[in-house]
Amino acid sequence: MKKASIKIKNQVSLTCILSFLISCAFLNAQNMPGESFTLQSKYMKGDREIQIALPHGYNEWTEYDVLYMLDPKWNMELKKSLLDFMQKKSMSPRTILVGVVSPDRTSDMTPTKMDNFPTSGNAENFIDFIGKEVKPFVESKYKTSGHNTFAGHSFGGLCVMHALLKSPEYFDSYLVSDPSFWYDNKLLVKMAKEKLSKAGGKTLFIGGRKGKAYKGMGIEAMGTVLKEYAPNNLDWKIIAYENETHNSVIYKLNYDGIKFISQDFRNSTIRFTPNQGEVIPGIPLTIFMTQPNDKLRYTVDGSEPDFDSEFMNDSVTILKATTLKVKIPLKRDHTLPAVSGEFVEGTKLKGIKKGKKHAAGLRYTYYEGNFNKLPNFDTINVIKTGLVTKGFKLKSFPKKQFFASVYKGYFEAKTSGYHYFVLSSNDGLKFYIHDKLMINNDLKHNAHSQKSTVIYLEKGLHPIRYEYFQFDGGAEINLYYKAPGEKPGRLNFDRFWHKPSRK
User: Which residue segments constitute the domains of the chain, with CATH numbers given?
Assistant: First the structure.
């Protein structure tokens, strides 16, 4: 019985090794995106090449996460295109991609010496090279956030898991793709039982192929160890993909892995409407989720949501002044704070009866200057005045850039109740009702992010004011609203009124 058991183990290992060697033969080198650098390494006893690709729009006043990856000659182009897509869709943060080239991946990525692999066993030095030489180089050259991910496939996945167990201080997140956990009689699986306790606060994603390969690669065994030995604050996940090969699985796995690792970033993109405003005690105010998620939790007492907090569905209703906080709780350490909204106690604002003295539209005053923020309009000269009525566009102003404008008049509330206002702008904008600053969206920015507010207006006309400046790029103001009994929509000019000036 003992001999038969040994024979089966050897067959499993041989199958994995053959699968690994065959798959490597089909890995075609590609053009690596970005710029190449050569580092002199004491750990690797010679020069080593790294490839660095920056995200679109990289600038020196923004901090960026960094993803360190292995096997960039055949995998970096895929990861870069995937990151570009996910960053564009706000699924992951803008990330600096660092490819670490291995002239002998067997040497660099395996933890111990094995007779079947003559050059094997140099992973500890290789991990220290990345942690103590590559990382400092990247951090000295670029503006980084301090959040670092390590990613690898096959032997690279083995190396990434080794780094988590050996030196968890180097990285925050680990992306392990169809890893060769079978190596050296599942050495890392055994090591994990002893070392996982030091991996708390980290994020780990492991993916492989469903079926015999899931067991043969040692992923099933590692999953069993994680279930028993992983600390509570290790945020980990394993997925087995159907109908994939050792090479094809990397497409799905990278997408899911980056998405999992980036969950904290996506927490920062949570939006609810309104995200601030006034509530009348005892009159229910409904706050709507922009993108509902069945894992969202919320609190209304100012505390951070955790796994015991209430689930946030499509909406939540409040009856008094509240600090609303919403997020998906995570096990990992150093997460971003929840997205919060401050709702203060308000009063019902009385409207003015619309009469013959009111005419359609808003009055505007136009100014010119190189503004970086909204100016004190009392201290600058008026260039032009006019009316905002149907057909008015910002591009009708004399300048397309470097100008400011103020819009005054009345908003018509046709029914008493809560009125929601949503706006976005390029560049800065402030919105007042009854001389109350309801939305402050000042400074230079694009029009992608929206800000919203709510206020109780009784039927009638209510004085409003917009203050706006345009620095450069496209001038843009977008106004939306939701009134009682009305569908949400763009705020049309037929809701604006003003008093004509006397001649």
Answer: 2-267 (3.40.50.1820), 272-345 (2.60.40.10), 359-498 (2.60.120.1560)
Give DSSP secondary structure letters for 253-270: HHHHHHHHHTHHHHHTT-
Distances, alpha carbon 145 to alpha carbons 16, 198, 203, 329, in Å: 38, 23, 16, 21
- Mean pLDDT along residues 153-176: 98
The tokens for 425 are 């702008």
> Can you tell me the distance from the alpha carbon of 386 to that of 395, in angstroms, rounded to the nearest whole number?
14
- Helix and strand numbers (H, E) in the chain are 11, 28
What gap in Å lies between CA 500 and CA 503, rounded to an integer?
9
**CA pair distance 164, 181, nearest whole angstrom:** 14
pLDDT of residue 47: 97
How many Cβ atoms sit within 10 Å of the Cβ of residue 444?
Answer: 15
Question: Among residues 316, 199, 203, which one has the least CA distance to residue 265?
Answer: 203
Q: If we measure between CA atoms, which residue out of 191, 187, 240 comes closest to residue 213?
A: 240
Residues 283-312 pLDDT 10s: 999 999 988 889 999 999 999 999 999 999
Q: What is the pLDDT of residue 175?
A: 98
pTM over 0.85: no
Distances in whole angstroms, Cα of residue 141 to Cα of each of 33, 37, 83, 96, 180: 18, 12, 21, 11, 33
Beta-carbon count within 10 A of 291 CB: 10
CA-closest candidate to residue 177, choices 205, 137, 200: 205
Instruction: Tally the C-alpha atoms within 13 A of residue 418's C-alpha that lie toward its C-beta.
Output: 24
206-262 per-position pLDDT tens digit:
999 999 999 999 999 999 999 999 999 999 999 999 999 999 999 999 999 999 999
**CA–CA gap between residue 171 and residue 149 (Å, rounded):** 6
Structure tokens belonging to residue 4: 């038969």
The residue whose two tokens read 């980084």 is: 144
* 268 pLDDT above the threshold of 50: yes
